[in-house]
From TrEMBL:
Source organism per UniProt: Arachis hypogaea (Peanut)
PANTHER family on file: OS01G0153900 PROTEIN, OS09G0544700 PROTEIN
InterPro entries the UniProt entry points to: DUF674 (IPR007750)
Protein name: Uncharacterized protein
Pfam families in the cross-refs: DUF674
Amino acid sequence: MKLLIDTKRKKVLFAEASKQVVDFLFTLLQLPLATVVKLLTKEDAVGCLGNLYSSVENLNHIYMQPNLSKHLLLNPTILGSTPSISGLLPSASGMITPKLYGCNNSNCNTISDVCYSRCPTCTTYYMSKEMTTYFKGRAATAASQSNNNNNGFVKK
């Protein structure tokens, strides 16, 4: 991580970090802490969580993965397990049946497990139509997902 600091005002002027570091920080917002930070004022938030939340709020959507939206980070859904998007924590697969969401475009059949993410097929519609799902088992693992260059929240 590279930092440019104004030592007189004790402020960070510029920060540069790898994709993995940024994805890890954004993953922290998926914890119930993000909901707490949203309810507090920026001054009341503990440590840097308020700043992290504000940074995501102000982040331009062009830096996000095409199939994800900031809404996912700013309004996390609390489930029985936290998704292993960062690849740092093992997936708790099998604990719950995920909800799937379809594209709002009636001519598109794309589905996602992330509500309000941008449809990767249509690119102008969002995945918010809740689908009825039936699962016998899961084949995907966190290990197979971690080899994908498009995982995480931000683009490389």
